[in-house]
Predict the structure.
Amino acid sequence: MLVLVAALLLLGVVLGAVAHVPVTVSLLAGAAIGAWLVVFAVRERHRAHGTARR
C-alpha cells in the first residue's frame, strides 16, 4: 500500500511539473524516455537470445 501511495505521489509531482514546462520540452523528454526504453528492450531481447544459444 505504501508503494502505491508513493507511486501516485510521484505521478502527481511529474504531471505537475509537465504542466509548467513548454510543450517542446515535454515532447523532447518523452522522446528521450521512449528512445531509452527502445534501447533497453533491444538489449534485453539480444541478451535473452544470446543466453538461450549457449
The chain has a mean pLDDT of 87. The first helix runs from residue 2 to 20. Residues 48 and 54 are 11 Å apart (CA to CA).
